[in-house]
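Reproducibility note. Readers wishing to regenerate the assembly model reported in the main text can use the exact inputs given here. Chain order matters: entities are listed in the order in which they were concatenated for prediction.
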Amino acid sequence: MTKGLRISSMIAGVALLASCGKISFTQSDALPEIFPDYIGVTVPEGMADLQFKMADGREMSVTRERVADTLFYSVKAWSKGSSTGIAYAPFKVFVSHDSIDPYIAYRLIEPNYEGWREMGIYSRELASYKEKAVVRNSATGGGCVNCHTFPGGDPSRLMFHARGKGGGTVFRDGDDIRILNLATVGLHRQGTYPAWHPSGRYIAYSSNSTQQSFPIAGSQQVEVYDHFSDIILMDLQTDSITTFEPLFDDKSMETFPTWSPDGGTLYYCSAPQIENVGENRAKVRYALKAVDFRDGAFCGEPRTVFSSDSLSVSFPRIYGKWLLFTASAYGTFPIWHREADLWLLDMETGAVRRVEEVNSPDTESYHSWSSNGKWTVFSSRRIDGRYTRLYFSHFDGEGHFTKPFLLPQKNPEHNTLRLKSYNIPEFVKGDPGKLSKQVSTLF
Amino acid sequence: MKKFIAPLILFTGVFLATLLLQKHTFECQEFDGLFLLSGDYFTGMFQKSFPISGIIADFLTQFFRFGVYAPLIVAVGVVLAFFLVRSILARFCIGWNVLAAVFAAGLWVFIAFAPGAKRGVAVVLILLLVWLLSRLLPKRKPLALKAWVDILGTLIITGGVFLFLFLSHDVREREKASALKSAVAMADWPRVLSVATPEACLQDRSMTPFALLALGEGGQLGNYIFNFPVRSRADLDMTGVEESTLSYFYKAVLYENLHCPNEAIHNLFQLATLQEHSQSFMILRHLIADYFILGNFDMARKYCEILSRSTLHGQYVRYFKEQMAASAPHTPDSAEVRKNIPLISHDALYNLLLFQASGIDAPSTVDRILCTFLIDRDLERFRSVFATVRDRYTVIPRYYEEALIFAEGAPEDISQETIQRYTAFQASMLSMGSASQQRAFADTYWVYYLSKQ
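Running the prediction on these inputs yields the following structure tokens for the assembly.
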């Protein structure tokens, strides 16, 4: 935790004395029920202080004490106007010395249907509560901005799609910003989900024909599926696009590409092409596949890495031998699937398990590894079922995660009051800056 | 004392004009407005131009939801402008109240025609700034007109603006549309029909779907649908109508009344994308109600929490919190259940048939299905569906009888009145009856059926 911890603890103590002077507290062995639930979580050194409130809305005061690498939070709570309260047993927060990238980037957008108004790609400094707009869609004529990616977490390089009139794919390399409409290049296909090759020269895109549908009843309000999808490869040196027949055929749908750390293999998700996908959506299950990549081209036969009769795979993300993916009962858009969870594959042994320690009864979906593989950030709808929020979990390198913690906010109620969802959280190694002005010159 | 007569006249005129001519116009500004004591609201406001006037306007707009507050606020704003201008003019030795009244009346007209309160607030803020600067000038004795001239002038100006607004076609039409929206939002169907009369719908076709919605909710669709200027399905369900705040609002309310909160929420979210703040008070209120009906209390509570950060929703939020405390939420569906739930379509008729087949049976669903067939002139499907729902009607609605007699001759349970009218219609058709005779049948289904074949 930050150096400010001691000072804030003192302030909290003074506030406690001032506010609780006339309240008598009963000591309890129970832990407080707080929101967000930070009890027993592991945070990186230097993370912004964890701010929380009583889950039932009662008034509270907090004192914090650090002993070695453990923070002890003592909470006293009382009802407004009451002269009695409860002093809860202190709860622990563990501080890890495994570093975390200083920034994350994400898109903020209402969890809407077909339409949108304001959205943007934002960065957040993890040591503080500072959030900045990297680019807002007001800079792109109001079109959709999506699928941002920083190669290897490099803040000076960025790619994102800007849809709509005059739109295309925006590439930033240092001070150089340009836009290219992939639909005008070679195959006339738009790129969707990107995977930037570790060499920085290539980007593999899935090219998806996606549709939203809306169940007439029940708790699921949106279903999204692809009519077809393929994988294409862009060479940034030549601005050319190439394909590889097994990844570009009518028999199957390929999506969610991701590279192995050495760039020698492309992992992706694939499902057999079927008719009337909307009606038959429950039959669509994506397997995890891999194909080799040598000298700027795909080669060999694709191979199945993992498949299941009851799971559909999406968002494979690799660090070392570990491959973290999202699995839902069917389909290709897990964010609207309440059963979607994070799963972990040991690529050396082939062992797969549902990561129970981070999952919730609600949706877990997009996720990224930190650049040292010690942390993961993932999106979850566990608070209310619709507005996606970001959670972090520490990874021990042996296949185990710690209890996840919600991205800290200066005011914990911000998590409830914010009317936007967090999309596509990615770690970034530095401040990506503000690009709206530069980007607006492209439109 | 005399110096307060002119502003009093102005205040009374503005208050009464707003109350009598623009009450619903301002009420609807609240529907589309938003003010929240939350970080994102203020951050968003400061990314826009003129944030301070925007925030003040949003704050004031909250009060427009309740009867006299909008007239009161507008009147106070206009009179404040009057005093500011009078004080500024005084520094230039001008003591003509009537001149201040002219400016204030200009602001009044500006506010009356503005889409929201922001510009009016901006003008008052600018005046305030000019007034502050004018304080730097030395105080001098202003040259005043005779009191009666000021009073008479203000009276004439106020009366003139009142008359101008009263006669303004734009003000009237906007108020009518707003009155309709207000009645629909309150599900006050008799009031909807009092605004969206057949004559009003003839002038403004966009009112017809709302009138037919009200008829449907009152169980009268089959009796009166062709009293209204119905030409196509779009008049019944806005099929094919360009997407707009009006069409999303209509569909949200329609699907709420068809007991399909999922599709209502879909349209509310779409409506939100067209709002200045990507959200609005009215949408939040509907979302709370719809999520409550769905049994999704997590979402209903979230929106309650958000609305509680406005100024005037305490009672509303408390009501739903109490309702939720007294009810049990629905358990979310498993993937096994979800995968079999049908998907909604852009075709309203398909959706209605889907609702019926899925047991989502709102009182107006069947009538809407039957009336869609009538509009489509698809008597075959009308007959086959009507046969399955015949028992629902103790008395067959007028237009169903007219369609049945047209399609089947004279089925046994058709009323004598309809049979006689049909006989007269046939006779009129055969004899190429006079224009007045034909007009007598203008509102029959038979004329609709034959007119655009």
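We highlight two features of this model. Chain B has 27 helices and two strands. Residues 377-451 of chain B form one domain.
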